[in-house]
């Protein structure tokens, strides 16, 4: 694809951004730097403030406080159409009276680009829709319209491309294909992409950095592997994949490991993978790191819990998910790759669960104050919680 008019990707900096709507704070003091040329994913549950963040960057909302810098230039007071930013919105709006081709070439023509039509065709070929270039938006399916919106944004080669759930209306196969193509486009032209999604798998496959957002704040940020293998909060541990979490007091410290008493069992966790080293702590392990065995194993470097009883077995082809009820611990989840035919243990079997000490992690949440599981609330619940918190703060003051 021609990149002659490409601008190079730009750093994006959000400094102390707060956004208050009447009666509701959507974003609270957000600091974020996205280096030029990166593919950055903002991941979080519905209502956590993702779209609001994009609208602030695009200049469609004014922050209540804070500054926005693009390529080192303060654009906080710059009109939206003067920012080097293009957005593919969650609800993509195409011009209904124009053909698909005109929709895509519109921005280029307005900027006086000579080969606008040719570039628009190229962008449409990229999303495999050049054959409908002469149709109008109403003659396309929702997923096709979404791809047109994507072509229309990419064709402008903005320094910063904001993507708000751009693949939401596509079926799984097309979604996977577009994920690969989007990543390729980004790599080819070196633009900065800020991709918003609540699909954790999409964020992990596409992004080089993920920020997990919760209630208007960033809980943790890093490379996908880092976030997955070493989550720092229960929210991240459960939002990005699944986790088995246990809470108990640190009872001793043994070289490089902490020993935690979990319902009478001594469970070890590497000191350098634990955020808290004393008092009550929450530790965890991912379900695929846990093995099921039918006799109690005794080996150094292994954590063992059990015996427990298998209360659910669900076969999903490549793997089987087991739910194991362990007295004093609750129900634990184990993912086991199907290396043989069928499940390795059956419903009702007595089993022990074991994992390598090195695979555990310790959270920074204070078990005394943090709820063990953050529910994936919808917007209204978050609004209610925020209001309740504000009211209680006001009462305390
Ligand atoms: N104009 C507005 N006035 C009042 N509250 C608003 C306004 N716009 C957004 N909000 C609130 O701000 C919060 C964040 O909204 P936002 O649209 O950023 O969520 P989101 O993370 O994009 O969610 P989703 O995944 O559902 O798209 C929500 O609680 C929402 O109700
Ligand atoms: Mg949104």
Task: Describe the protein's topology.
Layout: E1 12-21, E2 24-34, E3 39-43, H1 50-58, E4 65-70, E5 73-74, E6 85-88, H2 100-110, H3 116-126, H4 142-154, E7 160-164, H5 172-189, E8 192-197, H6 200-206, E9 209-214, E10 217-222, H7 224-229, H8 234-239, E11 244-254, E12 257-262, E13 265-270, E14 280-285, E15 291-293, E16 302-315, E17 319-326, E18 330-337, E19 350-356, E20 361-362, H9 379-396
Parallel strand pairs: 3-8, 3-9, 6-7, 7-8
Antiparallel strand pairs: 1-2, 1-4, 4-5, 9-10, 11-12, 11-14, 12-13, 14-20, 15-19, 16-17, 16-19, 17-18
Helix pairs in contact: 2-3, 2-4, 3-4
The structure holds adenosine-5'-triphosphate and magnesium ion.
Unreliable spans: 1-7, 372-382
How far the N terminus sits from the C terminus, by CA atoms, comes to 60 Å
In terms of DSSP E residues, the strand content is 25-35%
Q: Calculate Rg over CA atoms.
A: 25 Å
What's the helix-strand series? EEEHEEEHHHEHEHEEHHEEEEEEEEEEH
Q: How would the global form be characterised?
A: elongated
Sheet having the most strands = 6 strands, mixed
């Amino acid at each position: 694809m021609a990149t002659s008019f490409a601008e190079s990707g730009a750093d994006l900096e959000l400094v102390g951004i707060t956004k208050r709507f009447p009666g509701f704070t959507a974003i609270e003091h957000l600091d974020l730097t996205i280096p030029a040329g990166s593919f950055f994913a903002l991941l979080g549950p519905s209502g956590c403030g993702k779209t609001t963040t994009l609208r602030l960057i695009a200049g469609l909302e004014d922050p209540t406080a804070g500054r926005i810098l693009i390529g080192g230039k303060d654009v906080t007071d710059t009109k939206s159409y003067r920012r080097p930013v293009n957005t593919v919105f969650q609800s993509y709006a195409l011009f209904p009276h124009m053909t698909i081709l005109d929709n895509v070439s519109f921005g280029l023509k307005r900027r006086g680009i000579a080969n606008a039509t040719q570039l628009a065709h190229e962008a449409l070929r990229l999303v495999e829709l050049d054959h409908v270039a002469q149709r109008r938006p109403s003659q396309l399916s929702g997923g096709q319209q979404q791809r047109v919106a994507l072509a229309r944004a990419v064709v402008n080669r903005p320094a910063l491309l904001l993507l708000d759930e751009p693949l939401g209306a596509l079926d799984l196969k097309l979604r996977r294909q577009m994920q690969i193509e989007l990543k390729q486009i980004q790599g080819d032209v070196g633009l900065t992409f800020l991709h918003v999604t609540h699909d954790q798998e999409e964020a992990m496959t596409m992004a080089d950095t993920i920020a997990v957002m919760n209630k208007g704040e960033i809980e943790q940020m890093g490379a996908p592997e880092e976030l997955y293998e070493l989550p720092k909060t229960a929210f991240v541990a459960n939002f990005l994949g699944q986790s088995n979490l246990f809470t108990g007091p640190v009872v001793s410290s043994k070289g490089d490991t902490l020993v935690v008493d979990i319902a009478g069992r001594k469970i070890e966790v590497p000191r350098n993978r634990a955020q808290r080293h004393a008092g009550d702590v929450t530790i965890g392990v991912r379900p695929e790191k846990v093995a099921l065995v039918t006799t109690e194993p005794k080996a150094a470097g292994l954590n063992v819990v059990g015996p427990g009883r298998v209360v659910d077995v669900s076969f999903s082809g490549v793997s089987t998910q087991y739910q194991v009820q362990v007295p004093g611990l609750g129900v634990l989840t184990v993912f086991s790759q199907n290396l043989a035919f069928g499940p390795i243990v059956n419903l009702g079997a007595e089993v022990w669960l074991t994992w390598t000490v090195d695979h555990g992690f310790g959270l920074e949440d204070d078990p005394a104050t943090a709820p063990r599981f953050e529910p994936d609330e919808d917007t209204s619940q978050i609004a209610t919680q925020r209001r309740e918190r504000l009211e209680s703060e006001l009462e305390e003051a």
